[in-house]
Amino acid sequence: MTVVGIIAEFNPFHNGHLYLLQQIKKKFPQATIVVVMSGNFLERGEPACIDKWIRTKQAMLAGVDLVVELPVAYCIQPADRFAWGAIKILNELKIDYLCFGAEHAQFDFSQMAQKVAGIHGNFQKFNESYAAAYQRVVTEKVGHPVDQPNDLLGLAYAKACQQLAAKIQLVPIQRVAAAYHDQDLNPRQKIASATAIRKAWQQADQQVSNYLPPGSWRIIEEQKPLTWDDFWPWLRYRIFSSTPLQLKTVYDVAEGLEYRLQQQLLGLPMTASFDDWIKAVKTKRYTYTHLSRVAVSILLQLKQTEVERQFKQPYLRPLGFNARGQQVLHQLKKQTTWPVIVKVGQEEVKKIIEVDYRAGKVYELASHRPQDLKRSPMIIN
């Protein structure tokens, strides 16, 4: 059985994702498709617009055979650590190929990963973000810029495969029609960025349905997409009610950032939004994405020890599968020493998925939909 892996957020599942699946099925007609998908909080430091169960259903209706959750401790990380966590899970699932969209599918990502493997240093220039410094050094090593979002993720996947000695063959697939950060829908095409789709959906633009497969849109057309604004009251309370010392115990809060987070909030009017606060906190040293990840950590009260435990004690959490996906799970259970969480009870909450359970409960504050306790994987045949 050939198994193809995808690392995704599906926020939400749209025609660009469908195109990726179609290209995979052309290349590997008989393959089983396994997706490692971010849960309810995402890599760029934001809540998912719809919950992980709805996104799982969207993906499976479009042809995915198995969806496994990427734990939140892996999700809210810079590209390298995000990729490492996802590849570690896919390697345990014994996939043969990793397919991913790329702005430059002609790049040899594995070769580039070898060239940049020796990059070290903390890049702590006060007039330059870590991301900018890292991209500058990569350009020097590779000989050309690698600065597009999906290309950078492709490089991160290749580096993770090498670090984990994973025998996974990378298959980049050329992105078409829309750039990752495009803000607006193009009426002349049917593929748009997830950013543009979410923006149009929030504005109740009726054209948004043209950019999602019909089955995906029917599932969500009556819903309101969630944003940081929906979680801002709870985040603001966390920041207001914490001392700087308490904020410093939160994962990724360091180097005096705890003072700036609170001081900038105290200087804003009570009508200020999440975006107002982020812009006030922003400096050349910290990107908006970094600060947004920190905001998730504060909202979830995520601690350094909890993140370290996740990286040392991985587990597998299937969110949905069909008959072909079930075969992968059946084979997996014969080989893995990792816990496979099929149903969440009190024991799992206390010992294994405490952080993800907490993330689910926080997400429920805005979604009003139960996320974890007693939930079993979705079965679609």
From TrEMBL:
Name a single GO biological process: tRNA modification
Q: What is this protein called?
A: tRNA(Met) cytidine acetate ligase
In terms of InterPro entries, this protein maps to: Cyt_trans-like, Rossmann-like_a/b/a_fold, tRNA(Met)_cyd_acetate_ligase
Q: Where are the transmembrane segments?
A: none
Compartmental location: Cytoplasm
**Function in brief:** Catalyzes the formation of N(4)-acetylcytidine (ac(4)C) at the wobble position of elongator tRNA(Met), using acetate and ATP as substrates. First activates an acetate ion to form acetyladenylate (Ac-AMP) and then transfers the acetyl group to tRNA to form ac(4)C34.
The lineage, from the top, is: Bacteria, Bacillati, Bacillota, Bacilli, Lactobacillales
Family, as annotated: Belongs to the TmcAL family.
- Molecular functions (GO terms): ATP binding; ligase activity, forming carbon-nitrogen bonds; tRNA binding
> Which of the seven top EC classes does this enzyme belong to?
ligase
Highest taxon listed in the record's lineage: Bacteria
Q: Which residues bind ATP?
A: 7-20, 101, 150, 175
Reaction(s) the record says it catalyses? cytidine(34) in elongator tRNA(Met) + acetate + ATP = N(4)-acetylcytidine(34) in elongator tRNA(Met) + AMP + diphosphate
Q: Which GO terms describe its cellular component?
A: cytoplasm
Could you tell me the keywords of this UniProt record?
A: ATP-binding, Cytoplasm, Ligase, Nucleotide-binding, RNA-binding, tRNA processing, tRNA-binding
What EC number(s) is this enzyme filed under?
Answer: 6.3.4.-
* Record Pfam families: HIGH_NTase1
